[in-house]
Amino acid sequence: MQRVGKRVSSERRIPPTRKGRDHEIRARALREFAGLTSDDQRLDPFKLAHHARLMVIDFKQVQGVLSVETVTELLDNAKDSWSGGAASKVLPGGEKLIVLNPTHGRNRQRATLMEEICHVFLGHTASRLAIRKKDRNGNILARDYHADIEEEAYATGAAALVPFGGLREMIEKGKTAPEIAGHYGVSKPLVEYRLKVSRLWDEYTRKIFHVGS
Ligand SMILES: [Zn+2]
User: Fold this and answer.
1) Pairwise CA distance, residues 176 & 168, whole Å
2) How far is the CA of 153 from the centre of ligand 1 (A)?
3) Cα(151) to centroid of ligand 1, in Å?
């Protein structure tokens, strides 16, 4: 019998945990909405932002309305403690302004934007700012009461960027986290996060490090 490559059984495209399944199903809807037809395709959040009525503006465009001290703080001392921000006011046309940290690389910006898009699609209405306080070792210090909403948006966004089915197929082929990150245009930590929440970490490390073979 001929095997048809495109048709992957749904079980192979859905992670084993309940939370993982919930995030994956919403993420898949977002990918379909973006016009993607298979799990190995790269999602471009900058295109999708338009559909979520988010307008991504350059930091330079808001720089003028901020004090010199604030700009210095945001780009220097505090550059690692914020990833992006959404304006609380909606424009007359219904669009919302989003600013991404310009000191972050494109891969990180994509994940931040994807999270903001998920907040819109998941109907999170509370005012938010993607700021996370971190200690010197980079650990998140305080999680506010929006932690559940933040987790849902981040997890869904990450699943949309790196879908389970594609991730699984790539690790079965022996691809490394950096290779997978390059394929989807995301950071290596995001791929590692996806491997862990999708319960693919053990399979991944066995493949890469030949543990127990
Ligand atoms: Zn958020």
Assistant:
1) 12
2) 6
3) 8
